[in-house]
Amino acid sequence: MVAYEPLLGDLDVDVLVIGGGIAGTTTALLRKEAGRSVALVEADRLASGSTGRSTGTVTSQHDLFYVTVVDKVGEASAQRSAEANQAAIAILEGLTDRHGVDAYPSRLASHVFTRDESMVDAVRIEADAARRLGLPTAFVEDVDLSFAVAGAVRFDGQLQIHPSRVVRGFAAAVAGDGWSVHEHSRVVGMSANGDTVEVTTERGTIRARQPVVATVLPVLDQGFEFAKTRPSRSYGIAAGLGGEPSEPMHISAESPKRSRTRTRIHAAAARRPVPAVTQLAPPTGSGPSYRRGTPTPRMCSR
Ligand SMILES: Cc1cc2nc3c(=O)[nH]c(=O)nc-3n(C[C@H](O)[C@H](O)[C@H](O)COP(=O)(O)OP(=O)(O)OC[C@H]3O[C@@H](n4cnc5c(N)ncnc54)[C@H](O)[C@@H]3O)c2cc1C
Known about the structure:
Layout: E1 9-18, H1 22-33, E2 38-41, E3 57-58, H2 66-73, H3 75-98, E4 106-114, H4 120-132, E5 137-140, E6 151-160, H5 163-175, E7 180-182, E8 187-193, E9 196-201, E10 204-213, E11 232-238, E12 249-252, E13 257-264, E14 273-283, H6 297-300
Parallel strand pairs: 1-2, 1-10, 2-7, 4-12
Antiparallel strand pairs: 3-6, 4-6, 5-6, 8-9, 9-10, 11-14, 12-13, 13-14
The chain binds flavin-adenine dinucleotide.
């Protein structure tokens, strides 16, 4: 794995991106393609934040979501959100193609399913709302899982990637041609100076005309955002199968959330796809995450 040197000394760039996850590396590469000089600084290793621990599904589907968005902001704004989601899939795929990033991309169907008969109407309504916004969706009852579901919204043509390979590939493309990427370079200070912002890391300073903070939580938090965060933990299992796993991606509509995807093992044996299941658990300390009869991660992996 390529290691990037910490920032030692001073830099002067058009765009400084703070944070080496999917948001930061994608932004940095897009700005570089637009002809800007770019630096990216990461406090730890690239992809060491939530991106590297995610299941790598790049989808327009986010739970039962579009009904709520239409209610809150109206159909026109919801449509722009839907279009932005679809565009993001194409942009990410385009960047991996143009820069030769081998992140095992696959276009697959993605499903949000329910096993709860009382939620079927909500799932059906979500499918209708998403279809009206122009998304490639349908209500379905068969989702190719080893247990019965009551219904699901299927989104066609979504993207599955290996998230840390994307981040590392994009960083490598940014770092070429003299622009720089620095790991172990935590931002500890920031001040405005005319048209530029001066950003201080532990051992260097960067002057940038456009700083981009892509750190999930704001750095140098003056709004006490950290006080609104809470710890939570997700559990995952990956299991090799004798044959090919079923193709689509799945996530449950009900809590606790269970997400099932296929991933690829690094082991030489030919980067075989294996199913991976993530259990998105409730906040730490808030009680048991299983109800009797809900499918466990182990069940979902079959
Ligand atoms: C179990 C799990 C599964 C998920 N699965 C999916 C999925 O399948 N699909 C999906 O779309 N989303 C998924 N998500 C959510 C997704 O992972 C995140 O929304 C996304 O990865 C966030 O990316 P990011 O680049 O904004 O942040 P991160 O990947 O967290 O990157 C932020 C980076 O900023 C760095 N940083 C912080 N402070 C500083 C500082 N002061 N100076 C410099 N650097 C700093 C951090 O070290 C970190 O590397 C999942 C999340 C979890 C927990």
